UniProtKB/TrEMBL annotation:
Residues 184-290 form the HTH araC/xylS-type domain. This is Helix-turn-helix domain-containing protein. It comes from the Bacteria. InterPro entries: Homeodomain-like_sf, HTH_AraC.
Length: 292
């Protein structure tokens, strides 16, 4: 794996990062959903069609109109089955929506949290009402109104509160074992941190506490779930995955060891050397010499 240069940022992504939000109609901007960073933005979709949504360890077979809530800290994918798929999407950062540090984190919301209800079945009357809100948002984001951001926050919160009044969809495949669910999400989030492709964006999640904070969980609960389900500690999973990535970087790039250490989140190369030797029994430089 060679070190890669970063791709130029698209106009769509630039606007999204600058404003902290973007709203668009799916049939008019279908490619847009594939070029934003899921690590930074929450997502609300109002769509009509047939699809399968894989969200953490659950799958949702949906047909008709649904309202979907995507959390950037929880892995998900979307398979469109229908030939035609219409609706609206709103992307926004938590920083944009929260005007005060005292506001409750979105990760605690029943719509966004692990084990919550990210997919809701929508009736025709509800669809018409939500369509109106999304159209107002699209119209408003193109204006120069001084308080546009406040209006957009109000619209997003209105959608969220409307969703909280709805009953969960009846065709959700429920997972009763909460520990299995938490462990599955942790392992998927761990894997999403890799591969490391550039030293400009070093690994940011390196401890059990980091992952627990990202997932909106208490670290003791995360550790208990992972240990009970897998038989290994959370820190062991993290360390083993970092070592696997370190070996790949040592074998398949020309990065020096200091760069590799930095890319993997180590402040000093000596910390990386000691970590690598503790896990593997050998020094990083020895592995590189063996592979040459």
């Amino acid at each position: 794996m060679k070190a890669k240069t970063e791709r130029p940022v698209s106009q769509f992504n630039s606007e999204l990062k600058l404003r902290g939000f973007k709203v668009f109609q799916i049939e008019n901007d279908s490619n847009a959903t594939r070029i934003y960073s899921r690590k930074d933005f929450y997502k609300i979709c109002l769509t009509t069609g047939k699809s399968v949504i894989h969200y953490a360890d659950r799958s949702f077979d949906m047909d008709g109109t649904i309202l979907f809530f995507g959390n950037p800290h929880i892995p998900y994918s979307w398979e469109t089955i229908s030939r035609t798929y219409v609706g609206y999407t709103c992307l926004f950062s938590e920083e944009f929506l929260k005007v005060s540090d005292r506001s409750e984190s979105l990760q605690q919301s029943p719509l966004f949290k692990i084990g919550g209800t990210p997919v809701l079945k929508i009736s025709e009357d509800q669809r018409m009402f939500l369509n109106t809100i999304f159209r107002k948002m699209i119209d408003e984001q193109g204006t120069d109104y001084a308080y546009k951001d406040d209006m957009m926050r109000n619209y997003i919160n209105l959608i969220i509160h409307e969703a909280l009044k709805l009953q969960p969809s009846q065709n959700i495949d429920k997972q009763n074992n909460a520990l299995v669910r938490v462990t599955s999400v942790f392992l998927e989030l761990l894997e999403r941190q890799f591969p490391i492709e550039t030293i400009d964006h070093p690994l940011s999640l390196r401890s059990a506490q980091d992952y627990a904070k990202n997932l909106g969980l208490h670290v003791n609960y995360l550790n208990r779930a992972v240990k009970e389900v897998t038989g290994k500690a959370t820190t062991t999973h993290i360390s083993e995955r970092i070592v696997t990535e370190a070996k790949a970087l040592l074998q398949h790039t020309n990065w020096n060891i200091a760069d590799i250490a930095y890319a993997l989140g180590f402040e000093y190369p000596t910390y990386f050397n000691n970590f690598f030797k503790r896990i593997t029994g050998t020094n990083p430089s020895s592995l590189r010499v063996q592979e040459v």
